[in-house]
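> @MW can you paste both from yesterday?
MW: sure, first one:
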Amino acid sequence: VDVTNCEICERGDREDRLLLCDSCDLGFHLDCLTPALNRVPRGDWFCPQCVQAVPQEGQAVLNLCVGFYLCCSQGVLVFYRGYRC
């Protein structure tokens, strides 16, 4: 059985609170993220590392996509579909 650990706290517990990035498949506990999430967002979710890897010109295009929202809190970008800031 493969265990996915949280990239922030490095623990593999609380699987019901572990969110997987739809780009890189890395795991993150909802409450380890900054800002913390209360629930698993609907649709695709992308981790902060994958969001920051998007080139600036590509970021403008992503911001225009219907159903995508860019949130900024405490200087950390969290990008996912189906969640309104």
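MW: second:
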Amino acid sequence: EGELGSSRNKGKETFGKISTPSPRTGKEGRQDNGEVTDKDDHLYFWFPLLAGLSELSFDPRPEIRQSALQILFETLRNHGHLFSLPLWERVFESVLFPIFDYVRHAIDPSGSSSQVSEVETDGELDQDAWLYETCTLALQLVVDLFINFYNTVNPLLKKVLMLLVSFIKRPHQSLAGIGIAAFVRLMSNAGELFSDEKWLEVVLSLKDAANATLPNFSFLDGGDFVTGNER
């Protein structure tokens, strides 16, 4: 509940920073090219709707969370072509990314699962199951959304990569697997769209993930390691 409240407050802060619509805005609330700007009346309707659906995507009731997640991404798919880059930035930062913040806090990533496994109830295991399920689906949908609107949102690639790598770097095996699957999905479907600069961002993110997850072999350089022949 605390995490959801935090997400809600963050959405309100973002919503509060939206300036009032300009008197020069067209009656349809769009720029000449048809994109919705971040100074339109539209924002006063988009953010409460999208932020509310984002929170409901982790409702403990299966029918509620599934419907919320479906409607959230269908809304973005159907109307995303009208969004400007600044509006997409707000959507990613205040609507989509908080979904995964909630997951990372709800599932213990510290590797202490062995200590609590003896006292875990069926209800707690079920909760973990639907958190994984929802997180897997949501991450795939975020990747697909990024690919569909790549021409507009490509400047956000670095932030999307940071999200995926943050999962890959988790010591929690299931969360890391979710991140790897989403990373492969992004590379397979959007790789041909990347410029040399974007590929550099991808390679650097892979390097970051590899450095964070490779085993520590520093003990091999010490005197504590003795080979079979030396014995």
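> thanks! The CA atoms of residues 177 and 231 lie 40 Å apart.
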